[in-house]
Amino acid sequence: MVKELYLMRHGQTLFNQLHRIQGASDSPLTAQGIADAKEVGQYFKAQQLSFDHAYSSTQERACDTLECITSQPYQRLKGLKEWNFGVFEGQSEQLNPKNDSQRHSYGDFFVQYGGEADYEVRERMNQTLTEIMQQPTHDRVLAVSHGGACFMFLQKWLSYAEIQRRVTDFHNCCILKLTFANDQFNFVESINVKKLKQEK
C-alpha cells in the first residue's frame, strides 16, 4: 500500500526575519509565521485533506506551527529537529560557510564547533520518518520540521540536480509531499500555499 507524507517547514520566526542562524536554538514565530501556518490549515480543509497522525520536531517553532494548522493530537520527536550548528547558533547568517561543492551542503564544517555533520542530519531524519511511516494506520501523515533538516532528507532520495529542478519553492511553511511504499520515499511535489492563493 502506498502511503502519503506531508513534510512541512515551520512558519517564519524572529531569527528568520533577522537572518540569524537557527538550528538547535529557537525563536518564536512572527505574526507572519502564524498567519501563514493558519493558511496552510485552511488549505488542507479546502482540499479535504485529513491526517491519520501528526508529528513535530520538539522545537517550539515547529510545534507552534503545527498547532496553528490543526487541533488534532500530535507527537513531538527529537529526530525531526533542525541541524545543530554548534557555536554558530544565533549568529548572523553571513557567517555560514560556502557549500561543499561535492556534497551540496555545509558538509562536516560545524562538527569542529560542536554541531552536526550533514550526513548525521540526513540519516536521523530518514530513520525517524521511515519509522513513522512504517507504523500501521499511518496512511497519511503530517510532519513539521525545519529547512536544513528537510533539505538533507531530500538529498537521501533525490540528486541535487533533481532537487533544484523539482523543488521549486522551499520557503517557510512550504510542504513537501512524498509517497512511501516498500520502505522507499518518492518525492511528488512541493506545495507553497501562499503562492497558490496568489495565483487564483
Automatic annotation (TrEMBL):
<dbReference type="InterPro" id="IPR050275">
    <property type="entry name" value="PGM_Phosphatase"/>
</dbReference>
<dbReference type="InterPro" id="IPR013078">
    <property type="entry name" value="His_Pase_superF_clade-1"/>
</dbReference>
<dbReference type="InterPro" id="IPR029033">
    <property type="entry name" value="His_PPase_superfam"/>
</dbReference>
<dbReference type="Pfam" id="PF00300">
    <property type="entry name" value="His_Phos_1"/>
</dbReference>
<protein>
    <submittedName>
        <fullName>Phosphoglycerate mutase</fullName>
    </submittedName>
</protein>
<dbReference type="InterPro" id="IPR001345">
    <property type="entry name" value="PG/BPGM_mutase_AS"/>
</dbReference>
